[in-house]
Amino acid sequence: MPPFDQRIPKHDLSSGALAPLYEQVLRRNPGEDEFHQAVREVLETLAPVFAQRPEYLEGKLVERLCEPERQLIFRVPWMDDTGEVHVNRGFRVEFNSALGPYKGGLRFHPSVNLGIVKFLGFEQVFKNALTGMPIGGGKGGSDFDPKDRSDAEVMRFCQSFMTELYRHLGEYTDVPAGDIGVGGREIGYLFGQYRRITGRHESGVLTGKGLSWGGARARTEATGYGCVLFTEQMLRTRGRSLEGMRVVVSGSGNVAIYAAQKAQQLGAKVISCSDSSGAVVDEGGLDVELLQQVKEVERGRIAEYAERRGAQAKFLPGGTVWQIPCDVALPCATQNELGEQDAVALVNGGVQAVAEGANMPTTPEAVRVLREAGIAFGPGKAANAGGVATSALEMQQNASRDSWTFEYTEQRLAEIMRHVHDSSFETAERYGHPGDLVVGANAAGFEVVAEAMHAQGLI
Ligand code: GLU
Q1: Which pLDDT score, from 0 to 100, does residue 11 have?
Q2: Which residues are CB-neighbours of 29 under 8 A, at least 6 positions away?
Q3: Which residue from 316, 252, 317 is spatially nearest to 287, judged by alpha carbons?
Q4: Number of C-alpha atoms within 13 angstroms, CB side, residue 458?
Q5: Which of these, 271, 272, 275, lies nearest to 337 by C-alpha position?
Q6: Cβ(252) to ligand 1 under 6 A?
Q7: Phi and psi torsions of 422, nearest 5°
Q8: 396 in the Ramachandran plot: left (φ > 0), alpha (ψ -120 to 50) or beta?
Q9: How many CB atoms are located within 10 Å of the residue 265 CB?
Q10: Atom number of ligand 1 nearest to Cα 359
């Protein structure tokens, strides 16, 4: 095992060069807690970078990085099946296009607000840079709740959403994809409306498309698969592997399902999943096919999964998965789902590695607990980069009107995840924080974007 530096390189944001900058972020973006958290987490870990590369503090480069290039907020009116009218709010934050067109998903969930979209967009900039692909960062969504809505309602909502958003999109401009609440069905309705309004079959304008109309094989699986491939790399640096490990997964959406599937393929035993109503402990090993059937086909809840598994599985209403003793934990649900006490429980339960399948699922306090305990920790910007990286592969296939096999695409994904891991690992070492992938991922992503912004002048 390489030496692991447990000191957290805290750049004190209450004084020093970055203090007025962070103050300004707080003042300019009042009430946007998740955005503050995401900015703080990055700035605090970049101290070693600024010490070696002071030119990155010139030209207000960091201030520019914290200010989105463009923020769109729009009305989304639509009618439900009973004839009632609803008015939702739509967002698209086009954060940074120094490396390529804005790229990042759309989230449909009642919790969505500007602060959440900005936190996700900010993270996306660094994550996308880390993949080594030519994509900028953006994010969007709506406070629309697709739960219990009919297909016809979801279609009308998506059509109304795209009727405003289409004018801001394009394969060279801004390329959305899915996120929580936006999967293949929603991308289909969004693409159809874009095509109808513009009169163009512009396949590269959205990713996560169906396989018969420009989608990429392995895109659906990519975020979960990538997270597990990243975990395998992390364990490898410590002389271990996933073979025979007990893995706890939270969430039961696209990321969780395919993380569980890949972990099983690599010989691990996956024993849990969860949703907003509770957790399932399945000591027999998660039945991924049944979970897919319940969640993706029937659009049901995990309590139904537990019921059908019978004596094998236990449903814990209102519970979480963090109390279950395990070797590896993969938070794959949503932001701030793993708090300080949860991290303490994981450490006491013998956890060896934690990798974030979701975006920012681990609170800063929980990250500190894990790091101080010397647990291998894969931050989301690195560990869940496989989804967006495979979106970039989808764009590549669209641009060349090509369609790759599953095996070839998965092999490219595996190479990208190795690159993401190794560049985070080596960058951490280069800045004097060996083994610290939080510092490594933030610094490696930052270097790529900062270099491009520096070269392109004051814009
Ligand atoms: N929503 C995913 C993410 O958080 C994927 C975005 C994309 O494929 O553009 O990275």
Answers
A1: 61
A2: 35, 36, 115, 118
A3: 252
A4: 3
A5: 275
A6: no
A7: -65, -40
A8: alpha
A9: 12
A10: 4
Q: What is the largest CA-CA distance in the chain?
A: 63
Structure tokens at 349: 């339960």
At residue 323, the 3 state secondary structure works out as coil
245 lines ligand 1 (CB under 6 A): no
Ligand 1 within 6 A of CB of 357 = no
Residues of the chain with pLDDT under 50: 1-5, 7
Sheet architecture: strand order including 269-270: 269-270, 246-250, 328-331, 353-355, 376-378
Q: Are the C-beta atoms of 267 and 244 separated by less than 8 Å?
A: yes
Q: What pLDDT, in 10s, does the model give residues 230-274?
A: 999 999 999 999 999 999 999 999 999 999 999 999 999 999 999
Distance CA 81, CA 84 (A): 7
Name the pairing type of β-strands 102-108 and 174-177: parallel
Q: Take residue 391 and report the two structure tokens written for it.
A: 């979106």
Distance CA 346, CA 320 (A): 12
Q: Which of 139, 209, 295, 381 is catalytic?
A: 139
> What are the chain's domains?
4-65 (1.10.285), 70-201 (3.40.50.10860), 220-378 (3.40.50.720)
| DSSP secondary structure code for residue 179 in this structure | B
* DSSP summary character for residue 362: B
Q: 278 has which bridge partners? A: 275, 317
3-class SS at 188?
A: helix
Contact in structure between 438 and 371 (CB atoms under 8 Å)? yes
The one-character DSSP state at 98 is S
Distance, first Cα to last Cα, the chain: 44
Q: Characterize the bridge pairing of strands 272-275 and 353-355.
A: unpaired
96: enclosing H helix or E strand: strand 85-96
Q: Among all chains, which residue has been given the structure tokens 């289909």?
A: 188
- Calpha distance 190→332 (Å, rounded): 25
328-331 and 246-250 strand pairing: parallel
Examine the residue annotation and report whether 139 is marked as an active-site residue of this protein.
yes
Q: Helix, strand, or coil here: 190? A: helix
* Cβ–Cβ under 8 Å, residues 182 and 106: yes
Radius of gyration (C-alpha) of the chain in whole angstroms: 21
**pLDDT for 400-450, tens place per residue?**
999 999 999 999 999 999 999 999 999 999 999 999 999 999 999 999 999
Q: Are strands 353-355 and 376-378 parallel, antiparallel or unpaired?
A: parallel
389 Cα to the center of ligand 1, angstroms: 8
| Residue 359 CB–ligand 1 contact under 6 Å | yes
Contact 20, 37 (CB under 8 A): no
Q: Is 242 helix (H, G, I), strand (E, B) or coil?
A: coil
Measured between alpha carbons, how far is 197 from 162 in angstroms, rounded to an integer?
A: 9
Q: How many helices (H) and strands (E) does the chain have?
A: 17, 13
